Structures are given as C-alpha cells and as structure tokens.
Amino acid sequence: xxxxxFALDGKTALVTGGGTGIGAMIADGLVRRGVRTYxxxxxxxxxxxxxxxxxxxxxxxxxxxADLAGPDGAPALARDIAAREEQLDILVNNAGAxxxxxxxxxxxxxxxxxxxxxxxxxxxxxxxxxxxxRAAAREEDxxxxxxxxxxxxxxxxxxxxxxYGASKAALHHLTRSLARALGGDxxxxxxxxxxxxxxxxxxxxxxAVRKSVATYIPxxxxxxxxxxxxxxxxxxxxxxxxxxxxxxPLDGGYIAAL
Length: 258
What we know:
Helices cover 40% and strands 14% of the residues. It has helices spanning 21-32, 44-54, 73-82, 108-128, 130-136, 162-182, 207-216, 225-236; strands spanning 12-15, 36-41, 61-65, 90-93, 143-148, 187-194, 247-250. Strands 3-2-1-4-5-6-7 form a 7-stranded parallel β-sheet, sandwiched between helices. Strand 5 (143-148), helix 6 (162-182) and strand 6 form a beta-alpha-beta unit. The chain is globular. The model has no long low-confidence stretch (mean pLDDT 95).
C-alpha cells in the first residue's frame, strides 16, 4: 500500500532549468512519482531531449523553451503554462546562473545576469503564476513554491562569488517574505540550500571540490539525486504541508560544522 503522506501522483509541477543538474534530479523524481512535470531551458533541442528522456520511465514530462534572464521571460513562461493547465500544484524555482565572481573580475553585465536569473525571475514567475497556484491550493494540501538557494547564500565561502552569494542570500529572504504574503492563499514557500551537487556549476569530480568535501562536509560526500528528490518530495507532499517560510540546508552538515 502506497504511503499517501508522501504521495504526489496526479499533481502538476513546473521546474525551471529542469533539464540539467539539480533541476533534472528534481524533475526526474517528480515524473517517476506521477507528477505531470514541465521543465524549461533556453535551447529548444536540448530541453526537448531532456523531457523525452525524463518521460522514458512512463511518466509525463513536457519541455518548454524559456529564457528567464530577460524581463519578458517570466511572464511569457507563465502564459505558456496557463495556456496548458488550469492549476499548478508545485513551482520549483531552480533556474540559475553564475559568472566570474571576484571583486576584480565582476562586470556589470555579469552581476545583472546572476541577479536577474537567480532572484528576479523567481519573484516575477511566482507572481505571474499565482492564479494557477491559488487554483491548486487546498486547506489540508497547499500549493507549493520551492526555491533552490545555496549554502553560498548562508555563509561566505573561501572563494569569491559575490554576485552568486548575494543572489542566493536574497532568494532565501524572498522565500520568507513570500511565505508570509501567500500563507493566507494556502500557498507555502520554502527554499532548499544545497551544498555541492554535480551540476553545470559544480564539478564534484574536480580535485578542488573533492578536497573541499573531504575537509568541510561531516558526511564526507557530495549530494546525490536521491538526496534532493527526497527533500523535494517531503516539501511537496502532505508530509510537508505545515512547513512554511524555511530555508533547509541540504549539505551533509557543512553549515553545522562551520
């Protein structure tokens, strides 16, 4: 007998940047659990291939082209979803950008790109999708917004990543302010702050990352697909329905050991 406390089947989700890295891990878990899942990417061919691969388990994954760096990206994506769905149960704001992070290297265009994708897009996409989220919200089972932050927004790392860290710290704050604003609509807003996971932004096989993991993470390993799938499943299911406005480090104990 399936555990209904953690069941997600029949729900609908959008995972921005869901074709690669942590986003793909999240989307894969949702699809396999019976969630009709939309993923986004900038390259039509790449996002279509990712959606096809994620659907290969027999689930439903739809790839949409979206560029969230520009001011029209979030409204356009929201219109695309609204043309296909009457409600949205789960929004995962995962799309992210990084750039050379040192004080000397950072250019205005680098700063703007990182803040636009990591922060502005999450805010305006959430706002534009509110009608669909409200339509899905129930007293006992709210609609969910899950923001993908970073441990880089919880502390200052040993390397320079000024724009990235600032964007993720701001996203964590935005998570709390949106939780307060949307609780009355039966929409919860939480964030996950991952440590090192394999992604386009982090090469967990590199010598530098392996050394950092061995030195600073008590569990002694980087994150895996099961780790983030389990966390998202908890937050998106009935099990996590009363969790609201929190930033959950998913880091093997990194922040606790600082």
